[in-house]
Give the backbone structure.
Amino acid sequence: MIKARASCLALVGVAIEGFISKPSLEGMQIIELSTFTDPELAKPPIPKRPQLDFDSGRAGYIANTVEQVLLLLRDMDELRNLKKHELFLSVKRDLALATQATHVVEEWVNQAFCEMKEEESKYFAAQKAQLREAENQLAIALTTITELRKKLVLKDKEIEKAKQMAYNQGQKETETHLKSQLPVVCRIFCLQTWIEALNVAGVDSNSELRNPNRAFYPPAIRTRPALQSSVSTSTSALASSTKVP
């Protein structure tokens, strides 16, 4: 702005100097403005014939020149204001587009965020459902294991009970068998001792004392009716196998 005003003042000075140096103003043309560096000042003003009615035309020419300079400054201000307004409108339009684009981006981001939250909620819900199902399956498995352990303990108890019963039964049977066999063994031992005593005494083999039925047995091991046959067989075999020395 200051540079433009200085250029305009320089133009006025040049015009006045040219007017003073020429006595006649007939056919005078407007000074070319192409010599100035400012592109706004390089444009020629509106051509207008100077009025030479007052003071041989000098004062009118000076006034016309000053008027042209002032009009040029006003035109430059209007042009600058017009450019400012256009720039403002352009910036406003760009700002509106940027704001609209920002709203579009915000809507897109919000939509993407909502979709992501929805997918995340679905994923977490599915994971929770799977975890709940796994926990239920684990609880069922633990319950089954507990029941199987209880059944195993009961089976172990039953097996131990059966073993104990079998052991007791076997023990009773063995005890009964041993009780039934003990008198026979004792009678055989007594008969053997009796025969050995007869041999030592030198009793004849045809003697009545060598008859197994004549042998002495303690009352506890005397022959019972149920064991008479087995005892007789055993004593007879023992008596026949024993020889008198």
